[in-house]
Design brief:
Elements lengths: L2 H17 L6 H9 L20 E2 L9 E3 L2 E14 L4 E7 L4 E2 L2 E4 L3 E8 L8 E3 L20 E2 L2 E3 L5 E6 L6 H7 L2 E7 L1 H5 L10 E9 L13 H6 L5 E4 L2 E2 L1 E4 L4 E8 L6 E5 L5 E6 L2 E9 L1 E4 L4 E7 L6 E8 L2 E9 L27 E10 L2 E4 L11 E3 L3 E9 L6 E5 L4 E6 L14 E4 L5 E7 L9 E5 L2 H6 L2 E6 L1
The structure holds copper (II) ion (CU).
The site of copper (II) ion has 5 residues, from loops.
Length: about 500
């Protein structure tokens, strides 16, 4: 396929996705359809022949470290680059790479020193999303890195095995910087993960999938538009990338694959499943393994959530696709060639790990957190974010219950908190979803629903280096749907 054909086909898809992006407002939808080349959605048939799938899925390199005095020293360069996604070089950012970052892989109890160099001409930061580190090591706006400067936090890895990620958290600029590529995967191992009989060969049968939606123009440019509309609705793309590759393929080496899925989109909640609707198993939530593997046919993953799955591809036809489901149909986003898959030595374990469930009686404080968008302004508990204000003061080593809700507007908001992981106690008084029974640091709050979460605050964050809690629709975060808390 020529470049022009590829772009034309993307635009065909784009118009359909663009016209029916998750959007409840009829007026906005009508306007979008007007702007979308008037393609009759009913006539679009999503068949495989309009797809390409001839690029190999890129597996981010695992970042190397230098061991000095028992400390693992990593060096990350945040840099400008360019990348050809769909036929044209476009400007990007990357971390030791031309787009996105290399994978940071460590083990629980490791001592690490992370040198982060800012080679951009703008201020940036590097936040360790999901990691239990003290406020001063968290990488939020209070640990900004000026152009040509470095930031060098060091600490012990406290998290247990799981899939985490790092990304820019430069206030007001987070959305655009992450969109352009300042984001990468983190994998933590521990004795439990190393002893489980599950696929564990990185890039072979244990495969990272960083899924994102991006907006490409007819000319093939990847654009980020900052407008009142994107601030309110979030920036939506018209094209899916996996690990920065458009329509990638993988050749399955074995019949049992493990995928570590990270939704690194700015704003889109993604529904995923396989083209033949085969069953697969969720084995981990944001912060590590679940107790038991959970059989599913599709999954919903909000921005910043991580879900690990295992899928047995035995009996698949030679071409199997990972699909993203939209409200008008579906888009195949990755092809899995199963023709050379050998029999795996692993199996899907029924039991994974014992979770230390927090007893609600342990909680000494309850807080209500209300995410709102009203008349063009974004807030939490009626306050727009202010970096000089501490919104909540939490006692060190305490356990708290937070009631998370959104009382205005039709949108779901993925709530994220720094410096800890939580467990979902209930949704509107009902038990949590099966898919969220484990440690989490992002939870989707649906309109008019109270999500009760419980968490322990075991790490310090003084008032100069407070933690954040916010909506992980990055445009909402930048727009003020964020608060700060100290732990002391
Ligand atoms: Cu939001």
């Amino acid at each position: 396929m020529t470049r022009r054909e590829i772009i034309k086909k993307i635009m065909l898809l784009s118009s359909s996705m663009f016209a029916l992006m998750a959007c409840e407002d009829k007026n906005i939808r009508a306007k979008k359809e007007k702007n979308s080349n008037s393609i009759n959605l009913k006539k679009i048939k999503l068949t495989n022949d309009i797809y390409n799938f001839n690029q190999k899925l890129l597996i981010p390199d695992i970042e190397k470290y230098e061991l000095k005095n028992n400390i693992k020293h990593f060096n990350f360069k945040i840099q400008k680059a360019s990348k050809n996604f769909i036929g044209k070089d476009v400007p990007t950012y990357g971390v030791n790479a031309d787009y996105l970052g290399t994978t940071l892989r460590v083990k629980t109890k490791d001592l690490v020193s992370l040198n982060v160099e800012n080679n951009l001409d703008i201020l940036t930061t590097c936040h360790w999303h999901g990691w239990h580190v003290e406020g001063q090591n968290d990488g939020s706006m209070h640990q900004s890195i000026a152009p040509s400067k470095s930031w060098n936090p060091s600490f012990e890895i406290k998290n247990h095995a799981g899939t985490y990620f790092y990304h820019s958290h430069a206030h007001g600029k987070t959305a655009e910087q992450v969109y352009k590529g300042i984001s990468g995967m983190i994998i933590v191992d521990d004795d439990i993960s190393e002893n489980l009989d599950i696929p564990n060969e990185y890039g072979v049968d244990d495969i990272p999938l960083i899924v994102q939606d991006k907006f490409f123009t007819q000319e093939g440019d990847m654009v980020y538009t900052k407008s009142n509309r994107t601030t309110m609705m979030g920036h939506m793309g018209n094209t899916y990338l996996v690990n920065g590759v458009y329509q990638p393929k993988i050749e399955a080496s074995t019949n049992l694959l493990r995928f570590r899925i990270l939704n690194a989109s700015n704003a889109r909640t993604i529904f995923l499943g396989f083209s033949d609707k085969r069953e697969f198993y969720q084995i981990a939530t944001d912060g590590g393994f679940m107790e038991k593997s959970l059989a599913l046919n599709s999954l919903k993953i909000a921005p910043a959530e991580r879900i690990e799955i295992m899928v047995d591809i035995s009996n698949a036809k030679n071409e199997l696709f990972l699909n993203a489901y939209e409200n008008y149909g579906f888009v195949p986003i990755m092809k899995i060639d199963t023709s050379n898959a050998k029999k795996s030595n692993h199996k899907v374990p029924s039991f994974l790990t014992k979770i230390d469930w927090i007893n609600p009686k342990e909680a000494t404080t309850t807080r209500d957190i209300n995410l709102a968008m009203r008349h063009g302004s974004l807030s939490i508990n009626n306050k727009k974010f202010l970096g000089s204000r501490i919104d909540e003061e939490v006692k060190l080593n305490s356990t708290e219950i937070w009631n998370l809700k959104t009382t205005s507007g039709p949108m779901d908001h993925p709530f994220h908190i720094h410096g800890t992981s939580f467990q979902v106690l209930s949704r509107d008084g009902n038990p949590p979803l099966d898919t969220e029974r484990g440690w989490k640091d992002v939870v989707l709050i649906r309109p008019k629903e109270v999500v009760k979460v419980i968490m322990r605050f075991n790490y310090k964050a003084d008032k100069n280096n407070p933690y954040m809690y916010h909506c992980h629709i990055l445009e909402h975060e930048d727009g003020g749907m964020m608060g700060q808390f100290s732990v002391s």
